[in-house]
UniProtKB/TrEMBL annotation:
Residues 496-515 are annotated as: Disordered. One of its GO terms (molecular function) is oxidoreductase activity, acting on the aldehyde or oxo group of donors, NAD or NADP as acceptor. Residues 46-489 form the Aldehyde dehydrogenase domain. This is Aldehyde dehydrogenase. Gene3D superfamilies: Aldehyde Dehydrogenase, Chain A, domain 1, Aldehyde Dehydrogenase, Chain A, domain 2. Keywords: Oxidoreductase. It holds the Pfam family Aldedh.
Length: 515
């Protein structure tokens, strides 16, 4: 029987506290009960605000004020007007305005992080890291952008950003500010599932410094015509799933429009003739950061059958040590916020979907190696825990299960056993392209021979790979990426025009060019 919880919400961290502070910092962007959309350099009241709940405990929070297609088109036209003025602002002034924005984000770092906790369920450590990566990453571009822009000019129209909910700051705000630094007006669609208040506050701080930001909310179906197909748009930048990405890819290909489409893939970790089990065991909990709700998570292990017992000896103790709970619950008011591997999933529907997929996979033959349980002692008494799911590990997901070939985007690991190198490579390439992969093997020659055959943009040798920061490039193979690669100077190149006939590194319908 789990011990009864004696935890309480840490004083000053309630959603009402975060909302009150947001109203005080940016009263122009927030109303008593809702956030506003931003276009034509003004905060607008149009949009039907949808009800929303926090994944942390199911309590009400602010939802996105959804616009219709006609209003979204008006916002895009206004962004083009801003773009035509901004692209002529001298680079030193653009750098000064972006730097002022970064200083403002730094001043309100903890508030931005607290909003992320409530809106998308990030533990405190990871929420702060998301904010810090955005700030530090854009500062690097401010320091290095002069050489990146030599011989290059802004695009003809603004950059349209459509991103998933999981990294509002370190992916979306980071991209927006870098695009603006390069001379473009930027449009962002607020993620439907979470992060709208955090993104609203960050946008308010940016527009105060004269950054040409447009922020709109709405369904993809209603806004896609404006945000993807509008002739005013100079580039479409998308981060999300393959189904939506495929629709956007078809649209931009038909229009010949500049695009950066980061899509999901089944990132895999291979184990072949390995003996460093301590290193593997140490990294397993880190791979569960944020419940594996990120594009560079590793949900699939492909293991040499003869090493399976040793693998389990390292893996199972590590996965049993993972801590899941309420991100803001403490035993005493003065206690620091808890150190957790992850909190809730993005919503209760996602937790149920994954739980159902696990149940069906087991019914069809998968072997449950680990099925964690939620510890009552890490939650507030009587709180809603419907968005939480403890780690699960399955051996041999059947081909009929989506867990066999698709990314679960949650704390579910699957293990596939193989006997030959050919099987290893086939299993590691199951999703026809991935963003990252890793191969744990003692022999450097084996790694050097096999890693080029793994269809992932980045392949680690016994270590996880990430999206990267600053000068590190990022992209994907196969269906995991379409359009220009980014990271380092490629991010600036993807949103600027260079010499006539330039072929940007990327994965395009008519060519694939590595950096």
């Amino acid at each position: 029987m789990a011990p009864t919880s004696n935890l309480q919400l840490k004083p000053g961290t309630a959603w009402s506290d975060a909302w009150r502070r947001s109203l005080a910092v940016a009263p122009e962007a927030f109303r008593d009960d809702r956030v506003l959309n931003l276009w034509a350099s003004a905060w607008q009241t149009e949009g039907r605000a949808l009800p929303a709940t926090s994944p942390v405990d199911g309590s009400p929070i602010a939802g996105p004020p959804r616009l219709d297609a006609t209003t979204a088109q008006q916002a895009v036209r206004a962004s083009l007007d801003e773009h035509r003025a901004w692209r002529h602002v001298p680079l030193p002034e653009r750098k000064a305005r972006v730097t002022a924005t970064l200083d403002a984000l730094t001043e309100h770092r903890e508030l931005l992080a607290l909003l992320l906790v409530w809106e998308i369920g990030k533990p405190w450590r990871l929420a702060q890291a998301d904010v810090d990566r955005a700030i530090d990453g854009v500062r690097w571009y401010v320091d290095n952008v002069d050489r990146m822009l030599e011989g290059r000019t802004p695009l003809a129209g603004p950059v349209s950003n459509i991103a998933s909910w999981n990294y509002p700051m370190s992916v979306l705000v980071h991209a927006m500010l870098t695009q603006a630094l390069a001379g473009n007006a930027v449009i962002a669609k607020a993620p439907t599932d979470g992060g709208v208040a955090c993104l609203t506050l960050a946008s308010a701080l940016a527009v105060r410094e004269g950054i040409p930001v447009t922020l709109v909310s709405g369904s993809g179906r209603d806004l896609s015509e404006a945000l993807v197909r509008s002739p005013e748009i100079g580039c479409v930048s998308f981060v999300g799933g393959r189904d939506t990405g495929a629709d956007i890819a078809t649209a931009v290909a038909d229009l010949g429009k500049r695009h950066v489409l980061e899509q999901e893939g089944l990132n895999t970790w291979g184990v072949w003739n390995n003996s460093d089990w301590d290193a593997l065991g140490a990294v397993i909990p880190k791979l569960f950061d944020y419940g594996k709700q990120r594009c560079t998570a590793y949900p699939r292990f492909v293991v040499q059958r003869s090493q399976f017992a040793d693998f389990l000896g390292a893996y199972l103790p590590a996965v049993r040590s993972i801590k899941v709970g309420h991100p803001l619950a403490v035993a005493h008011p003065d206690d620091p916020l808890p150190e957790l591997d992850f909190g809730p999933l993005i919503n209760a529907a996602k937790a149920k979907e994954l739980g159902d997929l696990v149940s069906v996979a087991i019914e069809r033959g998968a072997v449950p190696l680990h099925q964690g349980v939620l510890d009552e002692a890490r939650f507030l008494p009587g709180q809603d825990t419907s968005a939480y799911l403890a780690p699960v590990t399955l051996l041999g997901p059947p081909p009929s299960s989506p867990l066999h070939h698709a990314e679960p985007f949650g704390p579910v690991d699957t293990i596939v056993l193989v006997d030959t190198e050919a099987e290893l490579l086939a299993a590691m390439n199951a999703s026809n392209g991935a963003l990252v992969a890793t191969l744990s093997t003692d022999d450097p020659a084996t790694y050097a021979r096999l890693s080029p055959q793994i269809r992932a943009f980045k392949v680690g040798h016994g270590k996880p790979r990430s999206r990267g920061d600053r000068e590190e490039l990022f992209g994907g193979f196969g269906h995991s990426w379409r359009g220009a690669f980014v990271g380092g100077e490629l991010l600036v190149k993807s949103v600027t025009d260079g010499p006539e006939g330039e072929r940007s590194p990327g994965n395009f319908p008519d060519y694939h060019l590595m950096p």
